[in-house]
């Protein structure tokens, strides 16, 4: 017994396949079948020749901002004999309460001209002048939430003609602003779209994003904050794959940055946020398996002895799945 309906359906399917083969430029179904079979074999062989491997990529970046600093200068005119055992003590007190507050500040070593030292070993020759200049920074507890005024004073002691002399230095007033407190949250895409080595077609490279959300959760403004990036660097590629990550552009707050690598946020006010984005390309399709963040603080100064409050309080990295 023959199922006429099933037979008619199969006949229509064969006729439709024949028509599709003719539209694709083949003589008949058999010619298309052999061509498709050859393509499957070629794709299979290409897949066997393809390589799946892990590559480690490193992107070095520097976060830079301007810190509020103060300068104290002592000038000495020596109209007598040699001054020896010069010692300078700086004292800082809160203006409205008179409370001793020197520990709320960090001092670098002074720059000396004419004076050989200020820690009890210094000398200043007769009929000469000398200066000592200190740069100092306020720590976070100097102005936690609002500006605070401080008086900077101190004392100068020295020996001349065998006599110990001590002089009080007149105070000067400074205004200390609160520190910013920055949180950096990076976002990167899990999938990188580019040429798939397991297909015959050459797929185009689609740019992907590395973004950073900068949140200032402190009570002070972050002044001239910027993040300077290096180009991605391949630090591990055991199988020697052809890998090329490149940053091609950057944006800040939705506007193009002046350079591809540096994102200049300018001033970030207290309790506000800003966003920077780097756009990258890669030749081949890939995805990120693990990502890590490492950070360290470095002060660009020739002075020693700094104690710094921590401005960068938090960093995190999140993966975006598309």
UniProtKB/TrEMBL annotation:
Taxonomy, superkingdom:
Eukaryota
Protein name stated in the entry: Uncharacterized protein
